[in-house]
Design a protein that fits this description.
Layout (H helix, E strand, L loop, with lengths): L1 E4 H10 L2 H6 L3 E6 L3 E4 L1 H18 L5 E9 L2 E8 L18
Parallel strand pairs: 2-4
Antiparallel strand pairs: 1-3, 4-5
Helix pairs in contact: 1-3
């Protein structure tokens, strides 16, 4: 754990997916505050990478993805919002199961 500038970490992670997003004609935006959080930067970056990768993969061509990051009550809150189809209601309980 160490101090991490949330905005910089999010921007770095999103930048890694820009070419894939462009190839699908996706609009990729960041809405982030510049705050310090205590975090493991490698693990946090991995989480953001996975979320953005999934958004790029499942958002239809011409869609949009927004990555929001802020600090609430001393904790990082990161949201990846896309115009993809979402997870079907019957599968939502299983999303966090290993290998689902």
């Amino acid at each position: 754990m160490k101090p991490v500038v949330l905005e910089a970490l999010v921007a770095e992670a999103v930048r890694a997916h820009e070419l894939a997003a462009q190839s699908k004609g996706l609009h990729l935006a960041i809405d982030s505050e510049s705050n310090l959080v205590e975090a493991d930067p490698e693990k946090l970056r991995s989480i953001i990478d996975n979320l953005v990768s999934n958004a790029v993969k499942f958002t239809p061509a011409g869609g949009s993805i927004t990555v929001r990051a802020r600090v609430e009550s001393g904790e990082a809150v990161i949201e990846v919002i896309d115009s993809g189809p979402g997870v079907p209601p019957e599968e939502r309980e299983s999303v966090f199961n290993l290998f689902f």
